[in-house]
């Protein structure tokens, strides 16, 4: 088993800002309507590359297709639950020439987000390719995240990480945990800890491989965390610049504008 650790500082997104922005997204989604298979924006123009295939718009069971039918990939999204007072749950399916995937996303308390959960699996074309099969789960307890980030300096970390990810493959499995601390200048110090191990009879072989690849593996993990932090900061910077009114304008803007 290999244990990988790296910490980064990132821009913080406070609870009140998320509670202010979340209804903007849901209001925009619920202001759309359908005409046949077309999904229309509030200005009456069709939303590009989005079609309703079956069911009632934004109701449980509604099935949508995203993308162009001739681009070689087919992505479908099914609404499993749409209740802003409690939860929104979506199932996404991807069919491509070399890969299939299914991912389910669930957001608890959409207007004041508290918990994000995801689960999924992937497999090769027609179920082939054992090495292409894998599954995963992720859980982000947003309330626990903000509580952990508010702990005073020197306080022990929370027993349970607010963000956890678990990936499984025939050859091994990986687990990732994220824990925040308050840092200076409106930032979070986020510790990322990953454990990687082989599975079943492959554990001894994987252990040797992880030992030999320890240096590159740690450098790769560190670089991946740093890149994720840079992407996060870029997105948050843009979000803070726009604010709720700017976000609303961006969502309403046509792609050609």
Give an account of the 3D structure:
By secondary structure, the protein is of the alpha+beta class. Helix content is 28%, strand content 42%. It is built from 4 helices and 13 strands. The protein has a 13-stranded antiparallel sheet with strand order 1-13-12-11-10-9-8-7-6-5-4-3-2. A hairpin with a 7-residue loop joins β5 and β6. α1 (15-30) packs across α4 (214-252). The longest helix is centred in the C-terminal third of the chain and has 39 residues, at 214-252. It starts with a strand and ends in a 5-residue tail after the last helix.
Task: Give a quick set of tags describing it.
257 residues, 13-stranded antiparallel beta sheet, 13 strands, globular
| Proportion of residues in helical segments | 25-40%
Radius of gyration over all CA atoms, rounded: 21 Å
Spans of at least 5 consecutive residues whose pLDDT stays below 50 are 204-213
Count of discrete domains: 1
> Count of helices?
4
- Percentage of residues in DSSP E strands: 35-45%
């Amino acid at each position: 088993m290999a244990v990988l650790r790296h910490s980064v500082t990132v821009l913080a997104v406070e609870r009140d800002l998320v509670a202010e922005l979340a209804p903007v997204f849901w209001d925009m989604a619920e202001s759309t309507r359908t005409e046949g298979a077309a999904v229309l924006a509030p200005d009456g123009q069709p939303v590009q590359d989005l079609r309703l295939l079956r069911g009632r718009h934004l109701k449980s069971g509604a099935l949508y297709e995203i993308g162009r039918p001739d681009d070689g990939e087919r992505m479908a999204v099914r609404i499993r639950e749409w209740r802003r007072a409690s939860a929104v749950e979506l199932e996404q399916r991807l069919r491509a020439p070399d890969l299939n995937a299914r991912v389910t996303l669930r957001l608890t308390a959409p207007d004041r987000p508290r918990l994000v959960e995801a689960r999924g699996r992937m497999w090769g074309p027609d179920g082939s390719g054992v090495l292409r099969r894998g599954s995963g789960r992720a859980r982000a307890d947003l309330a626990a995240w903000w509580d952990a980030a508010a702990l005073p300096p020197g306080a022990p970390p929370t027993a349970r990480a607010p963000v956890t990810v678990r990936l499984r493959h025939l050859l091994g499995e990986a687990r990732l945990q994220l824990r925040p601390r308050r840092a200076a200048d409106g930032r979070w110090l986020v510790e990322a800890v990953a454990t990687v191990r082989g599975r079943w009879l492959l554990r001894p072989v994987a252990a040797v491989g992880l030992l030999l690849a320890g240096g590159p593996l740690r450098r790769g993990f560190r670089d991946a965390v740093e890149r994720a932090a840079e992407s996060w900061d870029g997105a948050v910077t843009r979000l803070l610049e726009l604010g709720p009114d700017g976000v609303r304008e961006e969502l309403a803007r046509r792609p050609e504008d």
